[in-house]
Structure formats: C-alpha cells, structure tokens
Specification:
mainly alpha, Hypothetical protein af1432, 50% helix
Amino acid sequence: MNIDRRHFFASVGGAATVALMDPEAKADALEDYMIEQLSEQQQGRGQVAAKFPKAAEIEAQIDTRHYRRGAGSLFVNTKPGEKVNILQPMSAAPTFVEFFEKRFFTASEHCLQSANRAMKTGMSEEIILACLLHDTVQALMKVDHGYWGAQMYEPYVPAKTSFAIKYHQALRFYADTAAGYEYPDLYRNIFGEDYVPPPHIQADYKMLKNHKWYMEPRLVTVNDLYAFEPGVKVSLDPFREIVAKHFKQPKEGLGNDNSPVAHFWRSIARPDAPL
C-alpha cells in the first residue's frame, strides 16, 4: 500500500505530534492508518471489511516475523533490514537519570509526556513518578511489562508508585469511563477485537476493583494513552526534583548494589553481553 505522508501526519495531529512519538508509537499509529485505509478501499469496492483483526489472525502472524513482539527494545530492531545501534557507555556508578537518558530512549518521550500530563492535572508525586517510569522497563521486556517494571523499581520507589506501575497493565484492558479511560483501538489492533485477557489479568482486575489503591494504577492509564500533546517537547528537568526526592539511588550505582533486581539493571546497561 502506498502511504501519503501528509495525509498520515494529518490523521494523527500533524508532523509535530509524530515528532513527539517514540518509535513504537509511530509504528502503532502507522499500522492503524494502514488498516483504516485498507478498510476504506475494500468498502469502496462494495466489500464489507472488519476494522480490527481477530485474535486468531494476530496469532497466525507469529511465524511471519524475525523477532518476538515481547522482546525488549534494546535487544531487537523491528524495522526490516535495519540493525541495532551502538549504545553509549554507562558510568561506573550509573544513576536512574543516566539510564533514562542512555537506555530508555524508545519509551522516554512517551513517559515524559505521560508524566507531564499527570503533573499538569495535579496528580500526586507518587503518580507523576509512576507515569515517568511506567513503560521504561520495555527496554528489557515487553511481556507483562507492568509486573517486570514494578519488580525492577520496587526497591527504589514508594510503595504506591510500584503498585501503580505493576497494575496499570491489567487496568489498561478494562474501561472506566468515570475516570476518563476508554478501551483503546490500539489494543484491538495489537491483540484482536475478540481478545480476552489471560487469567492473571482478569484476577488482578477483580482484586483491584475493591482495592484501596485502585486509583493509583488507574491514573497511570488515564495519563498514558492520552499523553501526547502536539507541539510540546518535554524534558526531564521538571521531574528531577521528584526523582531526587522519591527515588532511592544506591551509592554504588544501579546494578552494583546487590539488590534482588540488580541483574535487571546490569542487563539493560550491557545488553550485548551474552553471558
């Protein structure tokens, strides 16, 4: 299918919006655009076309790829024919800020936009921090990223922050119109329109509905999908004070502090080390 770049940019809010998207968001937006265009073409020929694929159709695509969709972004390049990049070296005692700038680049813009929206709408510092961190673990692992992320950050952040990171994944599969969250069309494209979340997601949602901290992860979802603000470039600067206040930075450096998750950080720092 030929892509009209100007029409595509206009469909997502203009070139400025596209510039603010991380590579995964751009790929998702382009996929949505192509599906919509194909649907319009088929309807123009008198055919009835479903807008979203079925879960079985998504499953059938697995062996058409040269990578696993759940692999961390540091470890693969999903663009056909392209290679991974040489990474900047880390310091001897790396800080969270250094990881954010040197390793979390595929999610950093999205997370900054999410944290910016949370700050502008008056969220607590624990939630702003959760929004800043919530998708960064996808550099390491995309599968069950909420749970991986919460484990990676739990030794260093407030309990509400790690709770919000962990369970925002489950709540993204369930709408809450009162809180301002609708089930995203993006998920219908990624998982299929008839997708049913796995048992652990269903169980967590059931638990969360009556949990005293339900709104913590819910607010991450609200500030997640609707985070891109056209024409706004967000830096880490407005959040440095919150990070300094609430992130327990080990003096030895992340990955060197012998915490239960130090190997997470070492893996992100040195993703080209095979052993």
